Amino acid sequence: QVQLVESGGGLVQPGGSLRLSCVASGSILSIDVMGWYRQTPGNHREPVANITSGGSTNYADSVKGRFTISRDNVKNTVYLQMNSLKPEDTAVYYCNAEGVMTTMGGMNFWGQGTQVTVSL
Fold first, then answer.
1. Helix, strand, coil % (nearest 5) of the chain?
2. Region 77-102: what's the mean pLDDT?
3. What tens digit of pLDDT does each residue of 55-88 get?
4. Which of 17, 74, 85, 109 has a CA 20 to 30 Å removed from the CA of 93?
5. How many CB atoms lie within 10 A of CB 87?
6. pLDDT at site 103
7. Residues 84/66, Cβ–Cβ less than 8 Å
8. How many helices (H) does the chain have, and how many strands (E)?
9. Which is nearest to 96 in space by CA: 110, 79, 107?
């Protein structure tokens, strides 16, 4: 069984920073893409950033230049450094792992989500 566990969310003032972490655990052989999505009430979950096992990254236009995604393939961990946070970044942030290879084959997984609130 594979589990993704996020940490690092919380309350921060506008202009502040937070660092999210997500650790994938279980009988994992490799993970193709790891990334972050976010969701606000009444809206669809939207992609924020992702990173391949080779280190290629993609960012939503709304976070380019402010957020940085990174990854430790040995630890099966992905990070999201969020700087210059804005109130509109407030959301539940979800970790996602695509192409997780285990002895059972390849599957995709989601974390349980961590709340990020940007407010005075």
1. 5, 60, 35
2. 96
3. 999 999 999 999 999 999 999 999 999 999 999 9
4. 74
5. 11
6. 84
7. yes
8. 0, 11
9. 110
